[in-house]
Amino acid sequence: MMLSIKNVSKKYSNNFTALSNFNLELERGIIGLLGANGAGKSTLMKMIATVSKPTEGVITWNGCNIHKNGDELRHALGYLPQSFGVFPNLNAIEFLKYMAALKGLNMKKAVNRINELIDLLNLRDAANKSIGNYSGGMKQRIGIAQALLNDPKILIVDEPTVGLDPNERMNFRNLINSLSKDKIIILSTHIVSDVEASAEKIVLIDKGKLMCFCKNEELINSLEGIVWECLTEESHLKEIKDNYITGNIIRRSEGMVIRIISESKPLQNALSVIPTLEDAYIYYTSKKRGENIE
Fold first, then answer.
1. Is 46 left (phi over 0), alpha (psi -120 to 50) or beta?
2. Residue 229 shares a structural domain with residue 215
3. Nearest CA to 66 among 155, 3, 151?
4. Could you tell me which residue ranges the ABC transporter domain spans (predicted)?
5. Poorest-confidence range of 8-17, 80-89, 91-100, 272-281?
6. Are residues 17 and 152 in the same domain?
7. Same-domain pairing of 124 and 214
């Protein structure tokens, strides 16, 4: 099972380059696609889903060019876009039957699959209720259910936890983890904590370029010894932010605690702290750095 992206670029008619010379090889497991809004995540996912074609390069699924033989990939693909529309007057079973028909699935097999998914996603008690009355988390579960109707080998989820409360986000992450044994799951988000909690590997994108593709812990460990916390006065914050890559700022009774990423000790009272994935994300996408990981 291999999804390969080779020398892929995407340029639009206004001469805007959304992706530039992108190279990835993805195997089963959860891959976190991390980047700011506009970094190129959605462009990449649309090309993987065969909604859009690359300007240059090729994407293959098990060696087959997906833009010349798209049906082979589409039969193996499940996709939950960021903006997922539902028919509010339909109940869960009716909606999933409708989606199964759109996907061209055998209806007898689809009905059995729908019942499996209703139970898997803990929707049995609400299965006959109108989707319009569902919570945000329940609607996301319906979205995952439609993406899983064809038992896909590739599952793409785009910003799946936006708008969910903390419990719903945790439940969603647990669900994704439970599905990852025999699938390639591409989790696209700018919410770093979701990636940190779920992904085995990280794809970090900035301004259409691949900054890194590595294991979660490798990216975090690359900042060992260069992350600091300092207590300072509020009046000094601007100067610090102008001169260093900075992260979280917390107001305390004794002053402001600021997180700084610097190769050398930034201030006399700076204390070395354990790096996080958020630190790595800030560091490798910072305008003050702007270089790929060695």
1. alpha
2. no
3. 3
4. 3-232
5. 80-89
6. yes
7. yes
pLDDT digits (tens, 9 = 90+) for 37-91: 888 998 999 999 998 999 999 999 999 999 888 888 888 999 988 777 789 999 9
Kindly report, residue by residue over 175-211, the tens digit of the pLDDT.
Answer: 888 888 889 999 988 788 888 888 999 999 999 999 9
Q: Are 176 and 230 within one domain? A: no
Residue 230 has a CB neighbour count (10 Å cut-off) of 21
SS3 98: helix
250 and 169 share a domain?
no
Number of domains in the chain: 2
Residue type, 9: S
Residue 289's pLDDT is: 62
Give a yes or no: residue 283 inside a domain.
no
Which distant-in-sequence residues (6+ apart) come within 8 Å of 157 by Cβ? 80, 144, 147, 176, 185, 186, 187, 188
- DSSP-derived secondary structure letter, 91: B
Q: Rounded to a whole number, what is the largest CA-CA distance in the chain?
A: 70
**Residues with Cβ < 8 Å from 196, sequence gap 6 or more?**
216, 276, 277, 278
What pTM value is reported for the model? Answer: 0.85
Q: How far apart are CA 129 and CA 30, in angstroms?
A: 32
> What is the torsion angle, in degrees rounded to the nearest 10, for the CA atoms of residue 8, residue 10, residue 11 and residue 12?
160
Which parts of the chain fold into alpha helices (H)?
41-48, 70-74, 92-102, 107-120, 136-147, 166-179, 192-198, 216-221, 237-243, 277-284
Provide the pLDDT for residue 290. 47
Buried b (16+ CB within 10 A) or exposed e, 17-51: bbbbebebebebebbbbbbeeebbbbbbbbbbbbe
In the chain, the percentage of residues whose pLDDT exceeds 70 is 97
